[in-house]
Amino acid sequence: MESVFDERTVFQLKKLIINGLLDRIEGLISAGKEANIYLAYDLKGKEVAIKIYKIDSNTSKWMRNYIIGDPRFKKIPNNISKIIYLWASKEYKNLKRAYKVGLNVPKPIYIKNNILIMEYIGFGSTPAPKLKDIKHPTNLENLFSEVMNFIKELYQKAHLVHGDLSEFNILYHNQKPIFIDISQAVDIQHPKAEKYLVRDIKNIVSYFEKLGIEFTQSENFYYEIINKDI
Q1: Distance of alpha carbon 150 from alpha carbon 130, whole angstroms
Q2: In degrees rounded to 5, what are phi and psi of residue 180?
Q3: Which of 6, 23, 42, 164 is catalytic?
Q4: Could you tell me if 196 and 182 are in contact, meaning their C-beta atoms sit under 8 angstroms apart?
Q5: pTM above 0.70, yes or no
Q6: Angle, helices 218-226/140-156, rounded to nearest 10 degrees
Q7: Is-catalytic flag, 133?
Q8: Residue in 70, 181, 187, 200 annotated catalytic
Q9: Are 14 and 75 contacting, i.e. CB atoms less than 8 angstroms apart?
């Protein structure tokens, strides 16, 4: 079902319910090339989000670009399932780093194989929309500032570069940005970290320019990020 519920995944989900971490899984929130996200409830009736990564040979190939060179991962398995499990673990670790320093990301709750449980962002059973789906965000300049500040603090405080930041992986909740899809984020020691940082800045500036924000300091902003002590 939806290319994620193989026998092993169903077994793990049953264990989560039997062992009391989850009460029930409600339904699909979003489907992507890398993973599907589902709404679920814990034993207290509180919403949580479950991200289930697809065991897919095609996705495992591009994942290697963001794993190879990351000092946190010395040994990279050849087995497709194990690469996906490593990828899921990578997102969990990235979320923990970012959440620990106070950045607006979902709180990570649990990781096992290709199943990640994290904080649900939304009102009741209605998930928060992505920024790309908001036609007229309020306080545009403040929003732009908050997103750019996230890029900066993710680098300087969490020592990570998102690597794929755009309006497609920013949720708009209570008129605030919440940053998701952080699985590909790399440690700042990764050989391509600064290349990915430049791309993140370009993506965000390009999006906000379409909404009327003028920003001509991208290069200065980049150097401000990487030379925080200067």
Answers
A1: 16
A2: -125, -175
A3: 164
A4: no
A5: yes
A6: 30
A7: no
A8: 181
A9: no
